[in-house]
Amino acid sequence: MALTDPDKMSFLEHLDELRVRLVRSAIALAVGFAVSWNFHEQIFHLLTQPLRAHDPNVKFIYTGPSEALVLYMKMSFFAGIFIAAPFLLYQVWAFIAPGLYKHEKAYAIPFIVMGSFFFIAGAAFGHAYLFPITFGFLGQFGGQDMQFLPKIDEYWSFYSWFLLGLGVVFQLPVLIFVMARIGLVTAGFLLRQIKWAVLGSFVVAAILTPTPDMVTQTLLALPMIGLYLLGVLVAWLFGKPRRRDAPEGVSA
What we know:
This protein is mainly alpha-helical. It has ten helices and no strands. It is flat, with a radius of gyration of 21 Å.
């Protein structure tokens, strides 16, 4: 389906374009799910590895007859999101691109490549680093009088939403790159907002962290602050002068 010239699109045509982007994204997710389903047992072992790293002999339990099947489907869909990530990011870019100048639309490839990389990197950070530490910290409170028998759907809810949140949070340098290239923010402006970035990092960490302890929250907040500083460096290296239509106060 060919889309209408963006410069001549009405409100309803913008809604129709959004519908097309969403349908294409849904198809990409379905393809990612189909590919992942062929490896659902391997995916299960991979995604439960953070807990096994703390307790190699752990056994998961489920209480409903269809729970294992539904779990495999959820895990396959989750893996499919990462398979489809480049195409999904392209759909996001294609929808917002009509609001950019012609030369700014050339940033599509960096946006898609960097966005995919940081999305996967965020999930990998949580999987390989933050979750094992979290489980190790929580596991020390069980003692000898309690046996840990994790329910698989509770573990999955605990794990999946946190990793998706990390993948989104790790898009910060990509967002700053795009905004700096089109002249909406500068390195100087970002440095002046560093105190708010630190505060925001701890707030987001408190929301995303699956435990209320400050240790885990700090372990998440510090990399987020590092991502912000990386964004400052990106803005300094690749930024352009502020656009005339940028918000007031967003300047060098």
